[in-house]
Design a protein that fits this description.
The chain has one domain: Nonspecific Lipid-transfer Protein, Chain A (2-Layer Sandwich), CATH 3.30.1050.10. The radius of gyration is 15 Å and the shape is globular. By secondary structure, the protein is α/β, with parallel strands linked by helices. A hairpin with a 2-residue loop joins β3 and β4. The strands form two sheets. The chain has a five-stranded mixed β-sheet with strand order 4-3-2-5-6, sandwiched between helices. The protein has a two-stranded parallel ribbon with strand order 1-7.
Length: 163
């Protein structure tokens, strides 16, 4: 399935795949975490505002995966990591390792402790695998028309979700 990055459909399909793939749950069975990820504004990508998505996992079971408002993220997240869409693309395309980019400061820790962040680091590759089981298309790979359609769609879904 094709999904455009930073859309509800991407997160919904990723959650469905995670929940129906025993290997993900088995690998993550020792993890309980509320990790959120801020995608910073990138107008040339049609990302007109920051988006925060997050995953809540309890003993390997994915409880939630979706977008959150600022207030929801502050309330629910143990950890919030921040990076540009271009940086997240490198991680999601597995061209960069999450832990390496975090340690080098390319991914910032906005909320939470470094110790807690390092505690979830061994699970990062599995979580990234779960988010990339779909054919993920990034905004810099879209035609101008598709990018404009994404920009309009992002405005609509963010308003609908109260983001």
């Amino acid at each position: 399935m094709d999904c455009i990055y930073c859309t509800p459909e991407w997160l919904e399909e990723s959650a469905r795949i995670y929940q129906t793939t025993p290997r993900f749950q088995q690998t993550m069975k020792r993890l309980s975490a509320r990790a959120f990820f801020r995608i910073t504004t990138e107008p040339e990508w049609g990302i007109e505002r920051d988006f925060i998505f997050g995953g809540i996992i309890t003993k390997g079971e994915l409880i939630e995966l979706g977008f959150y408002s600022e207030a929801q993220a502050v309330e629910k997240a143990e950890l919030i990591f921040t990076a540009s869409p271009k940086q997240w693309k490198l991680v999601l395309r597995k061209e960069h390792k999450f832990i390496t980019d975090f340690l080098l400061g390319r991914i910032k820790l906005e909320k939470g402790s470094v110790a807690a962040a390092m505690g979830i680091a061994p699970y990062a590759d599995t979580f990234i695998d779960a988010l990339t089981q779909v054919n993920l298309r990034f905004q810099d790979e879209l035609s101008l028309q598709q990018l404009n359609e994404y920009r309009e769609y992002a405005s609509q879904f963010s308003a609908k979700l109260g983001l």
